[in-house]
């Protein structure tokens, strides 16, 4: 039995390019498709486009998580082993573990000939959106032997958005998530690590679905498709590359320009989401506290009671490498508790 991507009982999450209903494109981490079904056969058809690293498809089948290696480029049918159950029913979630180091086109699934696609539980009414970098994407999160240490050599195999603080926070809050996160990204173009030497910043990416220069023309996002009640803005760590001007000259011209751009970015988010609670933060990853000072200054200058800043207990001092699972859990626990205490409008 062939299940096409536009089947009415499939449940999707994340910013998805639906230009072709039979071939939706997954770009951002945490983007997913879920299904309940009967039978003992499960295959997924995909097409992958590679920018760098190896790529893995996240899969949670009947509560058991696995990672399936994707082809570098081109189409593939991936068979997922299914353990028979007493009621012959199964639930699967396929999700994008990584950022735009690759783009994934979902082409459908294959089940037993006599299988049935069953209704899924409705998505929760709570919705969050995260704007961030590699930490928000869960990059290198599975390298748990390196807690509190610099990163090991890798080619993408340790990256898993499921274990990002962003998705962990959403699960703790029982909320949907759109994770607009990209490794290496800074706020402004021509700073940060993403797509160096012509670095692309969050100011360019924030309103797009497809944004990687290697994958063709940008695709604009329709903001009416998803309206979060909480927006987390976790940028300001890669902005110290190639020069840490906020640390070196806080009152200098470049630092002032960054603060103005950060203020304008928050204004753009507010114009899209007039009622949302916007939480500004950085992470446990080592960085100079001047960046958090700059964020605090902007938040104060805006004077919007629904735009706040949160500083983690080990903010900027937790680890020289990417956050591993325990460190992401630490962040998520703090952040979820902070958000729950905000009395967010529209949450039950």
TrEMBL record:
Alphabetized InterPro entries for the sequence: CE2_N, PCW_deacetylase/CE
Superkingdom assignment: Bacteria
Pfam families reported in the protein's UniProt record: CE2_N
Positions of the Carbohydrate esterase 2 N-terminal domain: 12-119
Protein name per its UniProtKB record: Electron transporter RnfD
